[in-house]
Amino acid sequence: MLTAYVICLAVGGGFLALSFFGDFLEGDADFGADLDVGADADALSHGGVAQLFSVRAAVNALFGFGAAGTLLHLLWGGGQPVLTAAVAGGAGVASGALIGSVFGYLKRTESGTMRGERSFVGLTGEVSLEIAPGGRGTVTVRRGDRRVRIRARAADARGDAGALAAGQPVVVVEMKDGIASVAPVGPRLLDE
User: Are 104 and 51 in contact (CB under 8 A)?
Assistant: First the structure.
């Protein structure tokens, strides 16, 4: 039975590590897909049974089962296999249900939602790919602790201002359909 515990621990822990470190490696490894079990969508969206059938809950249950089983098997020297399996199963179900309900709450209250594109307005950054008059380029802005590269065009619709060169400081004055309208930043604004 130790082999089953270790496999569950490795698989569940591997997926959790991939999910956790995916952000640091600039990957996208979120295991939050929920399965529709054919019940009333409104009743399921408020937690309950739907949270137990999410991939995230299954991964956490697998990890909880493997961790508790391995720990208890090593602690008791394999002398209590039935009790170890029962406690490990309970720990797996409890960890899956707890994590599922926490993420269900976050989903319902929109606590973890991404800020919209309007949140870029007012941020300063610099041109990373030259923006020709009437053309598009890219700018890099800092939002929180992240640097974000977004497509951009000059805010001067007439094109009288000339090209915005790479490295030039700019401010985002408007966002529309994922494209920032940027204006050059003067030295006075940078000092403030």
Answer: yes
Q: How far apart are CA 90 and CA 92, in angstroms?
A: 5
Q: Identify the three-state secondary structure at position 121.
A: coil
Residue 90 CA to residue 69 CA, distance in Å, equals 10
Are 181 and 175 in contact by the 8 Å Cβ rule? The answer is yes
Q: pLDDT tens per residue, the chain (192 residues)?
A: 889 999 998 998 888 888 777 655 554 444 444 444 444 444 444 445 554 567 878 888 999 999 999 999 999 888 889 999 999 999 999 988 888 888 777 777 766 555 677 788 888 899 999 998 888 899 999 887 788 889 999 887 555 567 888 899 999 998 888 888 998 887 655 454
d(CA 36, CA 115): 27
- Cα–Cα distance measured from residue 43 to residue 47, given in angstroms and rounded to the nearest whole number: 8
**Residue 74 has which token pair?**
């090593």
Strand stretches in the chain, DSSP E: 124-129, 136-143, 146-154, 169-176, 179-184
Residue 181, Cβ neighbours under 10 Å: how many?
18
